[in-house]
Design a protein that fits this description.
With 403 residues, this protein is of the alpha/beta class. It is 36% helix and 14% strand. It contains 15 helices and twelve strands. The protein has a seven-stranded mixed beta sheet, with helices on both faces. β10 and β11 form a beta hairpin. α6 packs across α7. The longest helix is centred in the middle third of the chain and has 26 residues. The relative contact order is 0.16.
Amino acid sequence: MLTSSSMGKHRFNTGDAATTPSGLLAGIRVVELGGIGPAPFGAMLLADHGADVIRLDPPASRGLANPATLLRNRRSVAVDLKRPEGVAVALRLIGSADAVVEGFRPGVAERLGLGPDQCLAHNPRLVYARMTGWGQDGPLSEEVGHDIDYIAVAGALGAIGPAGGDPVVPLNLIADMGGGGMLLALGLTSALLNAARTGRGQVVDAAMVDGTALQLGPVLELISRGAWREERGTNLLDGGAPYYRTYRCADGGHLAVGAVEPEFYANLLDVLGLAEDPLFAAQHDRAAWPAMAERIAAVLAARTRDEWTARFAGRGACTAPVLTLTEATSHPHNAARGTYIDVAGRCQPAPAPRYRDAPAPPVRPAPGLGTHTAEVLAEVGYEPDEITRLHSGEIVLTTPPEC
């Protein structure tokens, strides 16, 4: 676990209480229709940069199954969207918002009465950002799925893995996070800029299969040039090249090697004592790659990961130790930059990217379900007796439930 002593204290603040709005997106209000995974990640990115993200969850849900990190920097409103009175509350909030984030399967929001056309009728300047796996149309749009399915159909999963082996699952980073939440945040902010210029709202269709394909652009270019083989583990960037892969060291740890450029390749060979070995004379000779990799593996297996890390330090060979997640949180570089921070006793990634003249807003822990219901409803004009009536009728929850 990351400790406070290893954080970059000068860059990020943390705290439990709401503060004066700050960040580049301060003043932007986003209503997030409660979901899991990539949509909350996209909403977290917006909140990290100062947007006032108000998350709506059912009063009986006690929060959905999201890691606390994904729900940080939010305000929580508990409202039953399956009842007309709850939908009316949501539409009133949306009427004062700049954007909506919705991560349901196609058609669900419309059936609730909270689809894009229904919301834009209340707020013509609204940006309505939709997050799905397959997109709003197409033969698979109604199918269920997860990250692994989207990267499979987009082609990414089939390209990852060792030669002659099975595809390797790259966590849920490619579709959920990079091709999902980040794409959603980009689409939403782009549409906000357009709405500011034109006064017209927009509907954003962010699909994880599209976002995965987008990230495959450079590989598709290599395929079109005949420079990429379909067989896994035989190419420049998939572990096939002996100078771009990982190697096991004497202690079972691994070293990542990325010496693609000729000068870095030369430095790699110099540190390994292989500079004069004729086997390595032609860096890009694919026929020699297996033998080259075997020879490098034998050399690296003679010392521990940390010994090699020390030997390569400052030598310009594009190598790095393969760290565990726990090790990464306390690595000197990450600690110096405050890449990982402590939020209410939990290790979390710090907001990114950073801005020279705009300090990051304080990072607040995920709120309890319904913590801000009364506060937010009052902001949009609900009187105290109305809020009490809604709470009594179980339309909203104004007091976080006991754990």
